[in-house]
From TrEMBL:
Domain of life of the source: Bacteria
Gene Ontology MF: a single term: NADP+ binding
Protein name: GDP-L-fucose synthase
InterPro entries: Epimerase_deHydtase, GDP_fucose/colitose_synth, NAD(P)-bd_dom_sf
Gene3D superfamilies: NAD(P)-binding Rossmann-like Domain (3.40.50.720), UDP-galactose 4-epimerase, domain 1 (3.90.25.10)
Function: Catalyzes the two-step NADP-dependent conversion of GDP-4-dehydro-6-deoxy-D-mannose to GDP-fucose, involving an epimerase and a reductase reaction.
Gene: fcl
Domain annotation NAD-dependent epimerase/dehydratase: ranges: 9-230
Length: 324
């Protein structure tokens, strides 16, 4: 472990919610050389620039957390951006890692890779067994391509490129855009503004019936580092050559209505909750089967209400930094 602490570890997407959490986790564990490059220094959409960066730095491991992400509205509005940007980012980074002889890489995907009506909880082998949720299909296809890129480099070149598929994430450094954010930051902002304006009602998109699983980003970072640190024999014993990704989640879910009620409690909102059923619900349920990850020795530790409280405190303290 002491030798590994001196390795050069590149975290792609370090300014995002997941990337910044991975950086915090690595630094807390004592890693001495965590490499980060902002968009002003390295444009991950530029293949030549990415290859030059890898050639310049002697990188030992890569955490590929960079991605274009957003909620239902953003996915519906910008499908071309979501598929193109994500395909280019992951292709450029994975190919550059291989070209620079980086043996180990961790690709971060998304639970949206699974079919809309996948059997719940969703096992890893549900991949490519059915139709995807239409609202985020372009993003999901890009993430599936990332998994297959890793598998293909492993098969053809003997690389050790791993993939983890997180459930819905939330926490510090999330995107709080009023339209383009995911459900938790969108609701935290909406309830916060309702409290500030002394509003009597908050309207939530959809029926409130869909069930979702949520994981605090610090748990996601801990799981990512845990999976990356596993020796090859242990990792391979719990995966298959054509099924190399691992689900990351809590194994528990709640309805959107229950989520909204918890956020109302965390933010101190005392008014009425209304649900606009004319807005899309998305998949009826998305719960991850995390038995494979638990067999590898890791499980989530942050309770949803505690995690929401942490996320809300960050939002209030960094209100001017939260993306609008």
């Amino acid at each position: 472990m002491s030798r590994e602490l001196n390795q050069n570890i590149f975290v792609a997407g370090h300014r995002g919610m997941v990337g910044s959490a991975i950086v915090r986790r690595l630094q807390a564990l004592g890693y001495r050389s965590v490499l980060c490059a902002g968009r002003d220094e390295l444009d991950l959409l530029d293949q030549r620039a990415v290859r030059a960066y890898f050639a310049e730095h002697r990188i030992d491991q890569v955490y590929l957390a960079a991605a274009k992400v957003g909620g239902i509205h953003a996915n519906n509005t910008f499908p071309a951006d979501f598929i193109y940007d994500n395909l280019m980012i992951q292709s450029n980074v994975i190919q550059a890692a291989h070209a620079s002889d980086v043996q180990r890489l961790l690709f971060l995907g998304s639970s949206c890779i699974y079919p809309k009506h996948a059997i719940q909880p969703m096992k890893e082998d549900a991949l490519l067994t059915g139709v995807l949720e239409p609202t985020n299909e372009p993003y999901a296809i890009a993430k599936i391509a990332g998994i297959k890129l890793c598998e293909s480099y492993n098969r053809q070149y003997g690389r050790d490129y791993r993939s983890v598929m997180p459930t819905n994430l939330y926490g510090p450094h999330d995107n709080y855009h009023p339209q383009n954010s995911h459900v938790i930051p969108a609701l935290l902002r909406r309830f916060h503004e309702a409290v500030q304006a002394d509003q009597a009602e908050v309207v939530i998109w959809g029926s409130g019936n869909p069930m979702r699983e949520f994981l605090h980003v610090d748990d996601m970072a801990a799981a990512s580092v845990h999976v990356m640190q596993l020796d090859g024999a242990t990792y391979q014993a719990n995966t298959q050559p054509m099924l190399s990704h691992i689900n990351v989640g809590t194994g528990k879910d709640c309805t959107i209505r229950e989520l909204a009620e918890t956020i109302a409690k965390v933010t101190g909102f005392k008014g009425q909750l209304s649900f606009d059923a004319s807005k899309p619900d998305g998949s009826p349920r998305k719960l991850m089967d995390v038995s494979r990850l638990r067999a590898l020795g890791w499980q989530a530790t942050i309770d949803l209400e505690d995690g929401l409280g942490d996320a809300y405190r960050w939002f209030v303290e960094h209100r001017l930094e939260a993306r609008d």
